[in-house]
Every structure is written in structure tokens, then in C-alpha cells.
Design goal:
The protein is mainly α. Helices cover 68% and strands 2% of the residues. The protein has nine helices and two strands; from the N terminus they run H-E-H-H-H-H-E-H-H-H-H. Helix 3 packs antiparallel against helix 4 and helix 3 runs antiparallel to helix 8. The termini are far apart. The relative contact order is 0.15.
Length: 201
């Protein structure tokens, strides 16, 4: 018999986990084990959520390196994600988990409503390594010490990751366009600043 209160979707599972977490929070390894998800898309989506929250500092920097660990494993062609013990032991406290789950529902709930398998070749074998290369760059930009640096690439990775989970190539393209536009803006802005400084010198 089906339990009516049992989580039915990925976001509901995340909300339940946040509600039941102890005050000290959960390690990244415990989060992965609790959700029982082995896909790279699921792991990246979980880690990208706190990176997508504006003006949240500390947590994005905690999870950005593990995100890169996952994208580099995708790039290397691994079938399943794995976190080194050093990264797996990093914790997100209960408050951070609760804020992340609320943010995920509020701003990414629409992904559950519209996602379905389409443009399957984009999420197929081989293309995932191409996507991993771009996501690695997006994740690396989160580490830059500028205001709101984490938000746009975090959202881009979250959308791409959800697209990978649901095999929705259209969502993957949407996330890729957002992340690529962000990187282009960073490169253009950095070039302009360097050129202006040289002119002053």
C-alpha cells in the first residue's frame, strides 16, 4: 500500500531531508546517501541549489569544489559520482538545508512541472562529457570573489543538472545558454577592467 505522506518527487525528498536533519546538519556524503541518488545530475542539482541563493556566502564556496569534482568525473567518463572523503565530510547545517530546500521549491519547482524527456541526444552518452566541460567552467566561476558571482552560474548548473536527471535536452540547453552568457559577461568585463587599468598606467 502506498504511503500518502511519502515523498514522490526529487524536490519533495529534499524537503523531507531538510525537515528531518539534526541541528548540526548533514555531511555531503550523508545527503547523497539519504537521497539514494547515484546520477551526476542529482548530485549537481543538490549542490547547485545553495549556490543559486543570492547573498548567501560561505555555503557556495563549500560546495563549489565538490561540484567541480563531480563535473570532472563526468568529463573523465565515470558512470557514477563519487566524493573524496575530504569533500564528503563537509557539512551543511539544518538552517542551510532548510533555506536551500525552500529556495529549490520556490524557484525551481517549475522544472518538475514542465520537464519531460525530449531532445534525448543532448543528454546521451558522449554529450554528457561536453556538457561537463562547460559546467566545470561555470562551477569554477563561483569561486571568484565578486558579489553575486555564485548566483547565475549556480542557477545555470541547477537547470542543466535537472535536465540531465529528467533527460530533458531543452532544459539542458537553457542552462547552458544562461551559464555561457554569464561567462561571456565575466570575460568581457574583466577585459574592459584590465584595458582601463593599463590605460591609466
Amino acid at each position: 500500500m502506498t504511503q500518502t505522506g511519502a515523498p514522490r518527487t526529487f524536490l519533495q525528498s529534499l524537503e523531507t531531508m531538510a525537515d528531518e536533519a539534526p541541528e548540526e546538519g548533514l555531511s555531503l556524503k550523508a545527503i547523497f546517501d539519504r537521497l539514494d541518488e547515484r546520477a551526476f545530475g542529482a548530485g549537481l542539482f543538490i549542490l547547485a541549489l545553495p549556490c543559486s541563493i543570492p547573498f548567501l556566502y560561505g555555503v557556495p564556496q563549500i560546495v563549489s569544489l565538490p561540484m567541480m569534482v563531480l563535473t570532472l568525473q563526468m568529463l573523465a567518463g565515470r558512470d557514477e559520482p563519487w566524493l573524496p572523503e575530504k569533500f564528503g565530510a563537509r557539512k551543511i547545517d539544518k538552517q542551510g538545508l532548510s533555506r536551500t530546500s525552500r529556495f529549490g521549491r520556490k524557484w525551481f519547482g517549475w522544472l518538475e512541472r514542465i520537464s519531460h524527456p525530449r531532445l534525448l541526444w543532448i543528454t546521451g552518452r558522449g554529450m554528457d562529457q561536453v556538457l561537463a566541460l562547460f559546467m566545470t567552467v561555470f562551477c569554477a566561476s563561483i569561486l571568484l570573489p565578486f558579489p553575486l558571482t555564485n548566483t547565475v552560474p549556480g542557477i545555470a548548473v541547477a537547470i542543466m543538472a535537472f535536465g540531465l536527471m529528467s533527460r530533458d535536452g531543452l532544459l539542458v540547453i537553457l542552462g547552458w545558454l544562461l551559464g555561457s552568457a554569464w561567462i561571456a559577461m565575466l570575460v568581457t568585463g574583466s577585459t574592459w577592467i584590465i584595458t582601463s587599468l593599463k590605460a591609466l598606467i
